[in-house]
Amino acid sequence: MRKLVMILIAAVCCVTPSFAQTAEPPAVVAQILGLSQDQLPQWIAILQARQTALQPIAQQAQSAQQSLDEALAAPSPDPLAVGQTLVALHGLQVQIANVNSQAAAQFEKILTPDQLQRLNDIRGAAHACGIVPAFAATGLLDE
Fold first, then answer.
1. Residue 117 belongs to a domain
2. Non-local CB neighbours of 143 within 8 Å, separated by 6+ positions
3. 114 assigned to some structural domain
4. Which residues, including other chains, have CB under 8 Å from residue 40's CB and lie 6 or more apart?
5. Per the domain annotation, does 31 fall within a domain?
6. What's the distance, Cα to Cα, between the start and end of the chain in Å?
7. Could you tell me if residue 142 is inside a domain?
8. Burial class (CB in 10 A: 0-12, 13-18, 19+), 22
9. Looking at residue 22, what is its pLDDT?
10. Model confidence over 102-113: pLDDT tens digits?
């Protein structure tokens, strides 16, 4: 039964429903998980806090990436400058991942057990989505 659920969720994830193509991602998530009117404001607050935390880190990461690109474009790149910039960029990527993980953990706390199970099933099926185009391109999937 669990396999069937995973297959169905993979189909839902990989063959994007028409409403998911035009709606904002939070609206799609809210609809798929069936968030209640009480959960929606909590989730919006989590998303806003996440965005507020990510914005300065993303700006720093963009600046670091630009510095790295410029350093590598030099006729004779300085290995020390390139290495330091890479280390800084990696640190910023870790910070971004931490903010995302914290927001996800907060979101999970507001979900019902059924909603959390659905979310975890979608997460599991999402890993398979990357291979679906190869099967479709070779004619092994019905469209």
1. yes
2. 136
3. yes
4. 30
5. yes
6. 24
7. no
8. exposed
9. 59
10. 999 999 999 999
Copy the structure tokens of residue 37. 């009117």
Tokens at residue 136, please? 């479709």
Give residue 86's domain range. Answer: 2-137
Q: At what angle do helices 113-129 and 25-33 cross, to 10 degrees?
A: 120
CB-CB neighbours of 81 under 10 Å: 15
More confident residue, 20 or 63: 63
Q: Count up the domains in the chain and report the number.
A: 1
Taking the CB of residue 9, how many other CB atoms lie within 10 A of it? Answer: 20
- Whole-angstrom CA distances from 43 to 30, 84, 110, 142 are 9, 37, 8, 36
Residues in the chain, total? 143
Confidence (pTM)? 0.74
Place of tokens 């404001």: 41
97, 100, 116, 118: which is closest to 108 by C-alpha? 116
Q: How does 31-46 read in b/e, with b if 16+ C-beta sit within 10 Å?
A: ebbebeeebeeebeeb
Residue 49 maps to which CATH number? Answer: 1.20.120
Nearest residue to 43 (alpha-carbon basis) of 58, 55, 33? 33
